[in-house]
Amino acid sequence: MKAEVVFFDIGHTLVTGAEQSPKKLLAARLQLSEEETEAVGRVIMTHPSREPALLSTVLGEILPRLESGQLRSAVEAVWEEQIHCVREIPGATALLQFLKEAGFRLGVISNIWHPFYEGFCRTCAEMPALLDYGILSYQVGHKKPSGHIYRSALREAGAAASSCWMVGDTYELDMAPAAQLGMRTIWMLNRPERETKQLVRILRGEAPSPQWTVENLEEVLEFFQNGRHHEKDVIANV
User: Which DSSP state fits 193?
Assistant: First the structure.
């Protein structure tokens, strides 16, 4: 029997980055409308661009009113910022090391574009080396909460959903789609002010609770150290 798999989100789960999302950073530099901002966000997270010039060309097709030089300059600037803004959340490497030594297979399922992932690999080099699977939106062409990206993860791991855990910081993107496929879930509720609507829905019984809820990675570590993952019916603690 294959070992259990623990998948993690990357941003705000294993690492932090810039205060604003890349689509908002580009929107501010290019003075984009709300509609343009959303379109840019979809493209940058699902197009396999590994260098800013190519991404600028692709974005030029959905932003024809902008001069190519202006667009490329903005993309290059934000690209570099994203590489250098990545910082490990305390305890992330130690958690992955513990799980690896305990026999788990590890992976990431993340909405991400290439420069941020490059920054992750540069700044937190020990973590990527511990991962068995990397299912990244810009590589698979789909972003969470699409079930496609989660099904891709299960196929790559060759694992039943019931033998997989998903650890992430957002209910809509991490908990709900993973649970829908039968994966077990740990909600790292480190930004509760952004999750108020989802918390209310859970408390009303309108949305399913995750198997476990924590405030930080230290509590994720304690969950596995204490063997809670072996319990057949972990009681939701939201």
Answer: G
> Taking a C-beta distance cutoff of 8 angstroms, is the pair 78, 29 a contact?
yes
Dist. CA 60–CA 71, nearest whole Å: 7
Alpha carbon 236 to its chain centroid, in Å, reads 22
Residue 112 forms part of a structural domain: yes
How far is the C-alpha of 107 from the C-alpha of 168, rounded, in Å? 12
Name beta bridge partners: 37.
none
Handedness of CA 23, 14, 223, 3 (dihedral sign): positive
Beta bridge partners of 211: none
pLDDT, tens digit (0-9, with 9 covering 90-100), for 184-204: 999 999 999 999 999 999 999
**Is position 98 within any domain?**
yes
Let me know how many helices (H) and strands (E) the chain has, helices first: 12, 8
| Under 8 Å between Cβ of 96 and 27 | no
* Strand duo 15-16 + 87-88: pairing: antiparallel
Structure tokens at 119: 């920054």
Task: Say yes or no: 136 and 63 in one domain.
Answer: no
Range of the structural domain that residue 61 is part of: 22-84
Model confidence pLDDT, tens digit, residues 71-113: 999 999 999 999 999 999 999 999 999 999 999 999 999 999 9
Examine the domain organization and report whether 194 and 211 are in the same domain. yes
| CATH number, position 147 | 3.40.50.1000
Asked if residue 95 and residue 68 are part of one domain, the reply reads no
117, β-bridge pairs: none
b/e code 126-157 from CB counts within 10 Å (16+ = b): ebeeeeebbbbbbbbebbbbbeebbebbbebb
Residue 10 is given by DSSP the state S
